[in-house]
Amino acid sequence: EAQVTQNPRYLITVTGKKLTVTCSQNMNHEYMSWYRQDPGLGLRQIYYSMNVEVTDKGDVPEGYKVSRKEKRNFPLILESPSPNQTSLYFCASSSGLRSNQPQHFGDGTRLSIL
Amino acid sequence: AQSVTQLDSQVPVFEEAPVELRCNYSSSVSVYLFWYVQYPNQGLQLLLKYLSGSTLVESINGFEAEFNKSQTSFHLRKPSVHISDTAEYFCAIILNNAGNMLTFGGGTRLMVKP
Lengths: 114, 114
Known about the structure:
The complex is a heterodimer.
Chain A (H helix, E strand, L loop, with lengths): L3 E4 L2 E4 L5 E7 L5 E8 L3 E10 L2 E4 L7 E2 L9 E3 L8 E8 L9 E2 L3 E5 L1
Parallel strand pairs in A: 2-11
Antiparallel strand pairs in A: 1-3, 3-8, 4-5, 4-9, 5-6, 7-8, 9-10, 9-11
Chain B lengths: L2 E3 L4 E5 L4 E3 L2 E3 L4 E8 L5 E7 L5 E3 L5 E5 L4 E6 L8 E9 L7 E2 L3 E6 L1
Parallel strand pairs in B: 2-12
Antiparallel strand pairs in B: 1-4, 3-9, 5-6, 5-10, 7-8, 8-9, 10-11, 10-12
């Protein structure tokens, strides 16, 4: 089954404690991205990756890091989380947004930073 | 910079009534357009998209959207909604000149009442 898997699904942590949200896809997609979803703001892109070792900033990259060492994995790293990063995060992958293939989303990770 | 505006944050409607969810965009270059649906506690799923060709696009579950270039709109319609259509709907664009960054609207919560 084609899927994008995020872990953890829920996390409550404290300010300044480094955390990583993992994302893995099994569709051999080249393109992966991270979004955060906040009420009234829709989804805003944090980072995206066009292929292995190729990453670029989205709309709201501050406070986040990513890496793409393997095609299937695209972890999101918060080196020093702050309360304004409390949000719902989604990872997505596709073979290309302009193709006829849709972008597949994970089920989301709800982060609470106290 | 490009932007997407969904004018209605919530749309309550009775079952079997028609519905229109509005989406307008702003961009200095031509765009591709998407509608995504998010059911409770799930990720986003592509509902339909316009890349080229006929300006009227349809989904498998009865939704349709029409690209209107002069009005920079991509409104989503369904002639008769079901309770199961209750979800949040997001309009999104991508610039067709470069990049792979989706810009989302703030979302519209469709609430179908019996």
